[in-house]
Write a structure and sequence with these properties.
456 residues, alpha+beta, Nucleotidyltransferase, domain 5, GIY-YIG endonuclease, 4 domains, five-stranded mixed sheet, five-stranded antiparallel sheet, elongated
């Protein structure tokens, strides 16, 4: 009925590490009926810190079978049984990955004894395997070895079955219960209350400190996605165990979610937000003069020390912006870096270019229009309000930009018309302009994506 499992591994996440030891205890709902144990050759050296924790050395597993040799036997032991483990996601993700590498498809209902213990025996100081075993009077022999830990988990599971007067275990096994995917320390009622709306969410640790900030168009769906994967990102399997609570802030739309996420990461500096702690990808439009004297443009990634005329958060937005300027000022697409064909550009052949790409149009005349185009880049420096969906039906969102600089965002009733900058300021909370925020605003001004841009 149940297969109680414990594994030891070469590291903390399934995509880059392998199993070194596995133990399986069969349980019929009353008592243990059988057990299995083997070392596993991971095909690599075992790190010294892992040896220090488990006592398993590279030499110990040198003659052990690789997982693919015992995969069929392990599958037989697991098939048709509920998978049970202490912090089940960790063991389950490793086994699923090992089965995939062996060419075997496997999935199972699973129970986590950490989550079950929190429900059935609330109020304990700690729910780690060692602390829980001590609280329940369960001795552990060979701690941090698969056999000893699996045996202790089996004894703990027996006690949980006996104490489960409210039927938590059966409810956890029901489809869509959510219990089997959630981090071990996260209360299910917090997850159940998450909205399916755009916003920014925060993962908090045991002390209430923010350890991760994310944004989503659908908060509940996005967070569920963090928990249902196979820990394919290096930090995901680590962060699961640290998540004790989730909070969120609704934003009404993706633009404000992106702005708020960026600013909150800069404000809180969460330990698991790696991407925005480093330089974010930016694309810029650059100008230069060729040997014939023609003023040219190109689109390229922004590198440290470079000085683009304007920056965007994506290459596509930079290209779209430049195409608009080419059309508006009758510029040559080839000299603007938008076509790489030899000879005259295609637009000249259809009458939309004056031939600067082949010297047909004089340098001075062509460059005059280029300079006007560059001056218009500062048109993004005008004062505007970017208006979008609010957090509720009778509300608009408002992103305010004054002379090209980000002021802040806020929300306003749909019946209120924004007529000037002074009035608009009453509805926004001041924000900090960063490169990420400015690039987002440039991108949305170029491609509003359903937003309304109002010049003030």
């Amino acid at each position: 009925m149940y297969a109680i499992v414990d594994i030891e591994t070469t590291g903390g996440y399934a995509d880059n590490h392998r199993i070194t030891e596995i133990a399986i205890y069969h349980h019929n709902g009353i008592e243990v009926t059988d057990h299995f144990y083997t070392l596993v050759n991971p095909g690599r050296k075992i790190p010294y810190y892992i040896t220090g924790l488990t006592g398993i050395t590279t030499e110990m597993v040198a003659e052990a079978p690789p997982f693919e040799e015992v995969a069929d036997s392990i599958m037989t032991l697991l098939e048709g049984r509920v998978f049970v483990a202490h912090n089940a996601h960790f063991d389950y993700s490793f086994l699923k990955k090992e089965f995939e590498l062996a060419g075997i498809s496997w999935q199972s209902k699973k129970l986590c004894t950490v989550r079950l213990s929190r429900k059935i025996i609330p109020g304990l100081r700690s729910y780690s395997l060692g602390s829980l075993a001590e609280s329940l009077g369960v001795g552990i022999q060979n701690r941090h070895r698969a056999g000893g830990d699996a045996e202790a988990t089996a004894k703990i599971f027996s006690k949980l079955l006996n104490r489960d007067k409210e039927g938590y275990i059966l409810r956890a096994l029901k489809r869509n219960s959510g219990e089997t995917i959630l981090p071990p320390n996260l209360p299910k009622d917090e997850f159940d209350k998450l909205p399916a709306k755009p916003g920014v969410y925060y993962f908090l640790n045991e002390r209430g400190h923010v350890i991760y900030v994310g944004k989503a168009n659908n908060i509940k769906k996005r967070i569920a996605g963090h928990f249902t994967g196979d820990a394919r990102e290096w930090n995901r399997s680590k962060i699961r165990n640290e998540i004790h609570h989730i909070t969120y802030e609704l934003t009404g739309n993706e633009l404000i979610a992106l702005i708020l996420e960026s600013q909150e990461i800069r404000r809180l500096w969460p330990k698991y937000n790696m991407a925005q702690k480093f330089r974010v990808e930016e694309w810029g439009i650059y100008d230069y003069e060729d040997r014939a004297g023609y003023h040219r443009f190109n689109v390229n990634m922004v590198k440290r020390g470079s000085k683009p005329l304007i920056k965007f958060s994506s290459k596509g937005d930079a290209w779209n912006f430049l195409w608009e300027k080419v059309r508006e000022f009758d510029l040559c697409p080839k000299l603007s870096g938008l076509q790489v064909s030899k000879g005259l550009c295609f637009q000249y052949q259809i009458g939309d270019c004056k031939g600067a790409c082949m010297g047909v149009e004089k340098v001075k005349k062509y460059n005059k229009r280029v300079y006007k185009a560059i001056e218009s880049f500062n048109g993004l420096g005008e004062s505007v309000a970017i208006i979008g969906k609010g957090r509720k039906p009778r509300e608009h969102s408002l992103v305010l930009v004054e002379r090209g600089k980000y002021v802040g965002f806020g929300f306003v009733d749909r019946d209120i018309s924004i007529r000037d900058m002074d009035e608009a300021r009453n509805y926004v909370r001041n924000g900090v302009e960063t490169a990420t925020v400015q690039n987002l605003i440039n991108s949305y001004l170029q491609n509003p994506r359903g937003f309304e841009v109002v010049w003030l």
